Amino acid sequence: MFIRYxxxxxxxxxxxxxxxxxMKTHYTKHHAGYTNNLNDAVAKAGTDKDIxxxxxxxxxxxxxxxxxxxxxxxxxxxxxNLYFSTITPSGGEDPSGAFGNLLKSxxxxxxxxxxxxxxxxxxxxxxxxxxxSADKDGKLLLSxxxxxxxxxxxxxxxxxxxxxxxxEHAYYLKYKNLRGEYVKAFFNVxxxxxxxxxxxxxxx
Length: 204
Prior knowledge:
Layout: H1 20-45, H2 51-56, H3 64-85, H4 97-107, H5 110-123, E1 128-134, E2 140-146, E3 159-165, H6 172-175, H7 179-186, H8 192-202
Helix pairs in contact: 1-3
């Protein structure tokens, strides 16, 4: 049975960058829905794979409708676990240490990295995500995906380590149609220590 990430902070902890009502709705309605639907779907599929293996081998699910249900809800479950685990009320600082230096060396500067990831988030048409991912060799990748898709599903060996949710449910209550303002604010709540830990896990 898949279980949602347990929030270590209150719904209003990300104020003023992400409002309490959005956080509560996002977590208790959307994330809960994806989790419940995923658990129902995997029971029907008769699979006991962990979520990473499941999303990396969707073609192994023979029933097209069930495969799509697991793609949508498994993606929603995985993506939101990552999202909620990589934000913190004490964010806002540039990443430091070895991982901060890695971002600078890969992308030229942290500002350049931020601009590129933001552009992917703003350029995603409709609902979707912007990603920072890593492969087992430690190579970093910036990308975006529609809906609840993520890089695990692409079969190229990349694991997401940070995701910006650009579904309207992630920001519309506060920012309305101003996605750019939300993306800008999101950088104030990123937990770079957790992102760095995710990077190390992706290399194993």
